[in-house]
């Protein structure tokens, strides 16, 4: 079921069974009477009559856990009800209940991320000790996302592997999980490694989320400049996942997170590479981006573009084999 937009690996009945069992252990006789209907569980209301009414007058909806009492009119999210039942009556936001749900019924198997020993030799990335610089920087410039916040996201989610990312790439790009928002997180670093913002991609939907008013720089630019020798050719794609998949197949790349803005075009011009390979999506807007980038980069770089295999809309839909053998035209 979904609670507050997060998918839990349990039906309401199971959650209520666990909840009442734990309440009983703690000698709390709330939610004692329950009756299942097709859409709801009817329960004795914990908000009035000391929770001791004779017949259930409240309902909890099976689909999303919304609580509503017909007698006293209280309306709550399930996590708020849980907080209330355990006696956290001041916890109006239901923080305790939310943690309780996560602890007991978290659907996604979130595990501590393995400490990946990056094999930089395969990317010819010199040393990651430079990363220390940006940590120091972060402490001095509050406008950057702190190492502390990034640390909250450093988990592995099975979705990362579904998208064919590897531990090595997850480590290289510091990809993480925002458990509460059910999103994969992508720190966007500047050239020096300062984290400008964290972009999110919802695990269930297809949407990307960026903080409002961010000035997008090229995603992947930090990793490119970490290479001891700047690559002579750089791929430019639209999405961060596409960028990661290109790197995975030994093709240094950066992503626009869109269709290219003035800052990003400046960054492309300034890159010490000879050639830019356009690998935006095969749809209309991807084509428009290619035309625009060709015009802006003309005279600065050699420009080619890739034609994706038939039926593939973007890099993310291509197999590793197809990415290794991308067809390139001038
Ligand atoms: Zn009530």
Give structural attributes.
330 residues; alpha+beta; Dna Topoisomerase Vi A Subunit, Chain: A, domain 2; 2 domains; 5-stranded antiparallel sheet; 12 helices; 18 strands; binds zinc ion
Q: What's the short story on this structure?
A:
This protein has 330 residues and is an alpha+beta fold. Helices cover 31% and strands 20% of the residues. The strands form five sheets. Strands 3-4-5-6-7 form a five-stranded antiparallel β-sheet.
What does this structure look like?
- The chain is an alpha+beta fold and 330 residues long.
- The protein has helices spanning 12-25, 78-85, 95-105, 131-140, 147-152, 158-162, 167-172, 221-226, 240-248, 262-270, 284-297, 320-324; strands at 2-3, 6-7, 34-36, 40-43, 58-61, 67-69, 75-76, 111-112, 155-156, 176-178, 183-189, 195-202, 208-209, 233-237, 253-255, 275-278, 302-307, 327-329.
- It folds into two domains: 2-105, DNA Primase, Chain A, CATH 3.90.580; 111-329, 3-Layer(aba) Sandwich (Dna Topoisomerase Vi A Subunit, Chain: A, domain 2).
- The protein contains twelve helices and 18 strands.
- The longest helix is centred in the N-terminal third of the chain and has 14 residues, at 12-25.
- It binds zinc ion.
- Zinc ion binds at residues 45, 47-48, 58, 69, 71-72, 74.
């Amino acid at each position: 079921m979904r609670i507050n937009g997060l998918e839990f690996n349990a039906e309401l009945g199971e959650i209520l069974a666990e909840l009442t069992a734990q309440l009983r252990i703690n000698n709390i006789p709330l939610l004692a009477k329950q009756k299942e209907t097709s859409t709801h569980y009817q329960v004795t209301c914990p908000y009035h009559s000391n929770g001791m009414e004779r017949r259930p007058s409240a309902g909890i909806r099976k689909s999303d856990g919304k609580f509503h009492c017909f007698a006293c009119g209280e309306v709550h999210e399930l996590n708020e009800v849980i907080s209330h039942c355990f006696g956290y009556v001041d916890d109006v936001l239901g923080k305790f209940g939310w943690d309780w749900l996560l602890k007991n019924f978290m659907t996604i198997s979130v595990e501590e991320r393995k400490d990946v020993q990056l094999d930089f030799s395969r990317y010819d990335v010199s040393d990651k000790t430079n990363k220390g610089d940006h940590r120091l920087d972060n402490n001095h410039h509050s406008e950057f996302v702190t190492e502390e916040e990034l640390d909250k996201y450093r988990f592995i989610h099975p979705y990362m592997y579904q998208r064919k990312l590897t531990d090595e790439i997850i480590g290289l790009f510091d990809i993480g999980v925002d458990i509460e928002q059910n999103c994969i997180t992508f720190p966007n670093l500047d050239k020096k490694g300062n984290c400008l913002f964290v972009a999110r991609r919802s695990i269930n939907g297809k949407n990307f989320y960026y903080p409002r008013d961010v000035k997008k720089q090229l995603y992947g630019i930090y990793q490119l400049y970490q290479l001891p020798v700047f690559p002579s050719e750089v791929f430019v794609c639209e999405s961060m996942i596409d960028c990661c998949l290109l790197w995975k197949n030994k093709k240094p790349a950066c992503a626009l997170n869109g269709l290219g803005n003035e800052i990003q075009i400046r960054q492309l011009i300034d890159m010490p590479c000879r050639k830019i390979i356009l690998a935006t999506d095969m749809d209309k807007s991807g084509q428009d981006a290619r035309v625009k980038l060709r015009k802006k980069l003309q005279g600065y770089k050699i420009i080619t573009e890739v034609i994706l295999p038939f039926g593939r809309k973007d890099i993310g839909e291509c197999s590793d084999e197809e990415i290794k053998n991308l067809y390139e035209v001038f």
